[in-house]
Write a structure and sequence with these properties.
Strand order of the largest sheet: 4-3-2-1-5
Order of helices and strands: HEEEEE
Structural class: mainly beta
Number of helices: 1
Largest sheet: 5 strands, antiparallel
Shape: globular
Strand content: over 45%
Oligomer: single chain
Protein backbone atom coordinates (compact mmCIF):
# COMPACT_ATOMS: atom_id res chain seq x y z
CA UNK A 1 0.00 0.00 0.00
CA UNK A 2 1.16 3.49 -0.84
CA UNK A 3 2.15 5.86 1.99
CA UNK A 4 -0.38 8.41 0.77
CA UNK A 5 -3.14 5.78 0.80
CA UNK A 6 -2.30 4.89 4.41
CA UNK A 7 -2.55 8.54 5.49
CA UNK A 8 -5.87 8.99 3.68
CA UNK A 9 -7.26 5.75 5.16
CA UNK A 10 -6.61 7.07 8.69
CA UNK A 11 -8.60 10.25 7.99
CA UNK A 12 -11.73 8.66 6.48
CA UNK A 13 -14.77 8.82 8.76
CA UNK A 14 -16.61 5.64 9.63
CA UNK A 15 -19.58 7.21 11.47
CA UNK A 16 -21.34 8.57 8.36
CA UNK A 17 -24.84 7.42 7.38
CA UNK A 18 -25.71 6.38 3.83
CA UNK A 19 -26.49 9.62 1.99
CA UNK A 20 -28.00 9.90 -1.49
CA UNK A 21 -29.33 12.86 -3.48
CA UNK A 22 -32.90 13.63 -2.46
CA UNK A 23 -32.32 12.96 1.23
CA UNK A 24 -33.17 15.59 3.84
CA UNK A 25 -30.20 15.91 6.21
CA UNK A 26 -29.01 17.90 9.21
CA UNK A 27 -25.32 18.77 9.01
CA UNK A 28 -23.75 20.01 12.25
CA UNK A 29 -20.65 22.02 11.32
CA UNK A 30 -18.14 23.61 13.67
CA UNK A 31 -17.89 27.39 13.17
CA UNK A 32 -15.01 29.46 14.58
CA UNK A 33 -15.83 33.03 15.60
CA UNK A 34 -12.84 34.83 17.02
CA UNK A 35 -11.52 32.63 19.81
CA UNK A 36 -14.80 30.73 20.29
CA UNK A 37 -16.07 27.67 18.50
CA UNK A 38 -19.72 26.65 18.18
CA UNK A 39 -21.82 24.10 16.32
CA UNK A 40 -24.12 25.40 13.56
CA UNK A 41 -26.80 23.06 12.18
CA UNK A 42 -27.72 23.34 8.49
CA UNK A 43 -30.82 21.36 7.51
CA UNK A 44 -31.80 20.90 3.90
CA UNK A 45 -32.09 18.69 0.84
CA UNK A 46 -29.05 16.97 -0.67
CA UNK A 47 -28.99 18.07 -4.30
CA UNK A 48 -25.53 16.86 -5.35
CA UNK A 49 -22.78 14.45 -4.36
CA UNK A 50 -19.35 14.61 -5.91
CA UNK A 51 -15.93 13.11 -5.56
CA UNK A 52 -14.92 9.89 -3.91
CA UNK A 53 -12.86 8.83 -0.93
CA UNK A 54 -11.41 11.68 1.11
CA UNK A 55 -12.54 14.33 -1.42
CA UNK A 56 -16.25 13.43 -1.38
CA UNK A 57 -18.61 16.36 -0.83
CA UNK A 58 -22.34 16.99 -0.65
CA UNK A 59 -24.28 20.11 -1.61
CA UNK A 60 -27.24 20.87 0.65
CA UNK A 61 -29.99 23.34 -0.28
CA UNK A 62 -32.57 24.94 1.98
CA UNK A 63 -34.99 27.86 1.80
CA UNK A 64 -34.22 30.60 4.34
CA UNK A 65 -36.55 33.64 4.46
CA UNK A 66 -37.84 32.84 0.98
CA UNK A 67 -34.35 32.68 -0.54
CA UNK A 68 -32.62 29.45 -1.61
CA UNK A 69 -29.30 28.86 0.14
CA UNK A 70 -26.84 26.19 -0.99
CA UNK A 71 -23.83 25.04 0.98
CA UNK A 72 -21.20 22.45 0.08
CA UNK A 73 -19.68 20.27 2.80
CA UNK A 74 -16.65 17.99 2.60
CA UNK A 75 -18.08 15.02 4.47
CA UNK A 76 -14.74 13.71 5.80
CA UNK A 77 -13.69 17.13 7.12
CA UNK A 78 -12.88 17.48 10.83
CA UNK A 79 -15.10 20.62 10.78
CA UNK A 80 -18.18 18.39 10.37
CA UNK A 81 -19.40 17.26 13.79
CA UNK A 82 -22.18 14.93 12.62
CA UNK A 83 -24.59 14.27 9.78
CA UNK A 84 -28.14 13.01 10.43
CA UNK A 85 -30.50 11.75 7.75
CA UNK A 86 -33.99 13.03 8.52
CA UNK A 87 -35.81 11.57 5.52
CA UNK A 88 -34.77 9.49 2.52
CA UNK A 89 -36.03 10.61 -0.87
CA UNK A 90 -36.03 9.35 -4.44
CA UNK A 91 -34.61 11.43 -7.26
Amino acid sequence: MNVLDEIVQDQLRTDLPVITPGDTVKVAAKVVEGNRERIQVFEGLVIAMRGGGITSAITVRRIASGVGVERTFKIHSPRIDRIEVIRHGKV
